[in-house]
Amino acid sequence: MILLKPGFEYITAFFGCLYAGVVAVPAYPPSTSKTLGRLDAIIADCRPTAALTTPEHVDAIHPRLNATAPGARVFTLPDIDMATADQWQPTTGKSSDLAFLQYTSGSTGNPKGVMISHQNLIVNSTTIQQHFNNRRSGHVVSWLPPYHDMGLIGGILQSAFVGCPTTLMTPIHFLQRPVRWLRAITKYRATASGGPNFAYELCVRKSRMKTWQSSI
Fold first, then answer.
1. Which member of 24, 94, 136, 157 lies 3.0 to 4.6 Å from 100 by CB, making a disulfide possible if both were Cys?
2. Crossing angle for the helix pair 197-215 and 179-187, to the nearest 10 degrees
3. Which tens digits make up the pLDDT trace of 45-54?
4. Which of the pair, 109 or 42, is modelled with greater confidence?
5. Furthest C-alpha separation in the chain
6. Nearest Cα residue to 24 out of 115, 99, 136, 110
């Protein structure tokens, strides 16, 4: 399980799982009672053998793993010895092998894990590239969380698949000031960006509020 906040470490951890030939389980570190409940449900469903997180979340994660997945190890970023990268050996696998488990939000019940194979990922990435006409000369801007399918596949993996640059911001960075997203699209001349309906509604609402305040 990858239990890290959005950032470069999250992306590195995901690709590390692929390189190691292990099944990645993108998730979010516990912060509220709601996220703790979601984490418990995911652990119970996938029974992970290891989790990667940061030191401040170990106390919340470790007992939950022990209760449902005994023997699972908890690693923190400071535990990772970068020198071990020299020992990496290419893995052998098939396109039908499982790449990662994508869990639903759990808003209407327990999160459900969707099994995504390497072939699924390639086909999906190809379809996105064709329909959005993404090119190496393009630029992706995304604030979507990496544990969400749109943020991970559309915002991060698509740029790696196509070979174009990506500008990322955290979800909190966007929610605090939605205009940051729009400014990033303009500044970096983004050719691909997106979000759920509420993101556009939030941009409109905040923009109207700003205009109204300026007119007083």
1. 24
2. 100
3. 999 999 999 9
4. 42
5. 65
6. 99
Residue where the block lists tokens 């990506």: 166
Question: What sign does the dihedral 43-46-51-53 (CA atoms) show?
Answer: negative
How many whole angstroms separate alpha carbon 128 and alpha carbon 139?
A: 14
CA 190, CA 130: separation in Å to the nearest integer?
Answer: 17
pLDDT tens track for 120-169: 999 999 999 999 999 999 999 999 999 988 999 999 999 999 999 999 99
Read off the amino acid at residue 187: K
Per-residue pLDDT at 38: 86
- For residue 190 the two structure tokens come to 């983004």
Distances (CA, A) of 19 to 84, 155, 190: 13, 20, 29
pLDDT at 210: 58
Contacts of 84 (CB under 8 A, 6+ apart): none
Give the separation between CA 150 and CA 47, rounded to whole angstroms. Answer: 25
Domain residue limits, the chain: 1-132, 136-216
The DSSP code sequence of 30-59 is --SHHHHHHHHHHHHHH--SEEEE-GGGHH
State which amino acid sits at residue 47: R
